Fold:
Amino acid sequence: MATNKKAKNASSKQGKENTQQQAQKTGDKATNLVKEEKKTPQSTAKNEKKTQKKSSEKSKEPNIFQRMVGFLKGVHHELRKVTWLTKEELLQRTGIVAGIVGIFTFLVWVVDTGLGALAALFINI
Structure:
């Protein structure tokens, strides 16, 4: 029994020490928060200076006409990179597209005529 009491006393002492350490850590955190709060007014002044710099940088932006010319130069540069078809390739692929469009036009005409005749048959009955 005596050893149990000693063990309990030792564990309670350790518990008290742990609690004191936690309290000290909490106190340290609180002082850090207070220090940070004191820093915020200074940081807002810095933020205001940054926004002033940004607004002055916006005024240095080129006007709309300069930006349009820059855009058109970029478009011209990109179009020079394009691989263009030769005349023969263009005619061949145009013929393929026209043929496919013709086939589908014919199929749609056949289905439309058939459904129209079917509808006329049902209406006359």
Summary: DSSP finds three helices and no strands in the chain. Residues 84-125 form one domain.
